[in-house]
TrEMBL record:
Pfam families: Glyoxalase. This is VOC domain-containing protein. Residues 1-127 form the VOC domain. PANTHER family: GLYOXALASE/BLEOMYCIN RESISTANCE PROTEIN/DIOXYGENASE (PTHR36437), GLYOXALASE_BLEOMYCIN RESISTANCE PROTEIN_DIOXYGENASE (PTHR36437:SF2). The gene is yurT. Coiled coil: none annotated. PROSITE patterns: VOC. It comes from Lysinibacillus piscis.
């Protein structure tokens, strides 16, 4: 069994697609209209046939509350692995990304947390 798709609630699909591709560097895999929304997925450029991340609209009140409570509690919605967290941190800061936690040692890993401009906190991790 493999994880093939995971989702992330976003408050604006267009803004999310721009951020996740232009800023973070993911590659758009799917962008299919479905009623008033779209089925949008992105993948890592390092693994274009790997796990897809769905940029899921948070138009459901339960999704909105879940997303807001995660942020209010400082809990990242998901985590992305990076090879060199200091280099990635600098690259993202240079692109205007706002971090809520600078690279910090946490046991055997180094983590940092940023705002994705679409209602989420995202953690990056270096093992």
């Amino acid at each position: 069994m493999n994880i093939i798709v995971t989702s992330l609630f976003v408050n604006n699909q267009d803004k999310a697609l721009q951020f996740y591709t232009d800023v973070l560097g993911f590659v758009k895999r799917e962008d299919v209209p479905i009623g008033e929304f779209r089925w949008i997925t992105v993948v890592s450029p390092n693994n274009p046939n790997g796990t897809e991340l769905i940029l899921e609209p948070n138009n459901n009140p339960i999704a909105q509350e879940y997303q807001q409570k995660l942020v209010a509690s400082g809990i990242p919605a998901t985590m992305f692995g990076v090879e060199d967290i200091e280099q990635e941190y600098k690259r993202l800061v240079d692109k205007g990304v706002t971090f809520t936690m600078k690279p910090t040692q946490a046991g055997p890993v180094i983590i940092a947390v940023f705002e994705d401009t679409c209602g989420n906190l995202i953690q990056i991790t270096q093992r």
